[in-house]
């Protein structure tokens, strides 16, 4: 699998997605620091939510093959500015999480990710498994 780094606000579902991709049981585990393994880099939401820490994310992206920007379909606004993908020289994909949660608005979240520069956007729901296989196939290509 290509090495993926996940970025997005707290509660956007980064850690849950890493658990799904590793085939682990889902257990809530607040991310306190940037966590590396062979195929995944999980980051705390606070890095995306804090201006000076956000710059560190751009540097960490060079440890990965692909950058995943996450927005939950429940989020009321996007943290990612327009055209932010040019900050890194890695492929950047968008991942909309919580697509099947009550009140989800995946179209709005996908639109924000496209404005930020993501050419490819995956829609998933880690609670139901919706869309996860498509993402795994893509990472294995
Ligand atoms: N329904 C639904 N719930 C999800 C999904 N992804 C995550 N959750 C839930 O959302 C909450 C936060 O998920 P996390 O994966 O811990 O979020 P995170 O982005 O890692 O958050 P930080 O570690 O704080 O940055 C947990 O209660 C998850 O069970 C999803 O796709 N669908
Ligand atoms: Mg986390």
Describe this structure in words.
The chain has 141 residues and is an alpha/beta fold. It has one domain (4-140): Rossmann fold (3-Layer(aba) Sandwich), CATH 3.40.50. It has five helices and six strands, in the order βαββααββαβα. Strands 2-3-1-4-5-6 form a six-stranded mixed beta sheet, sandwiched between helices. The mean pLDDT is 96. It binds guanosine-5'-triphosphate (GTP) and magnesium ion (MG). Magnesium ion binds next to α1.
Strand-helix topology:
Layout lengths: L3 E4 L6 H8 L13 E2 L3 E3 L2 H5 L1 H10 L5 E7 L18 E7 L8 H10 L4 E4 L8 H9 L1
Parallel strand pairs: 1-3, 1-4, 4-5, 5-6
Antiparallel strand pairs: 2-3
What class would the helix/strand composition place it in?
A: alpha/beta
CATH architecture: 3-Layer(aba) Sandwich
Largest sheet: 6 strands, mixed
- How many extended strands? 6
Broad shape: globular
CATH superfamily: P-loop containing nucleotide triphosphate hydrolases
**Quaternary structure:** single chain
Strand content: 15-25%
Radius of gyration: 13 Å
Low-confidence segments: none
Task: Report the mean per-residue pLDDT as an integer.
Answer: 96
The kinds of small molecule bound in this structure are: guanosine-5'-triphosphate, magnesium ion
Order of helices and strands: EHEEHHEEHEH
The portion of residues assigned to helices is 25-40%
- Identify the CATH class: Alpha Beta
Measured between the Cα atoms of the first and last residue, the distance is: 8 Å
């Amino acid at each position: 699998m290509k090495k993926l780094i996940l970025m997005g606000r707290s509660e956007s579902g980064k850690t849950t997605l890493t658990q799904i991709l590793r085939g682990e049981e889902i257990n809530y585990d607040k991310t306190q620091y940037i966590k590396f393994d062979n195929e995944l880099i999980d980051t705390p939401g606070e890095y995306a939510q804090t201006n000076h820490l956000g710059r560190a994310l751009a540097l960490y992206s060079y440890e990965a093959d692909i950058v995943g920007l996450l927005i939950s379909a429940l989020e009321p606004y996007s943290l990612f500015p327009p055209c932010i993908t040019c900050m890194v020289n890695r492929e950047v994909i968008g991942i909309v999480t919580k697509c099947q949660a009550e009140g989800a608005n995946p179209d709005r979240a996908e639109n924000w990710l496209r404005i930020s520069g993501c050419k490819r956007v995956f829609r998933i729901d880690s609670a139901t498994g919706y869309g996860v296989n498509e993402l795994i196939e893509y990472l294995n290509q």
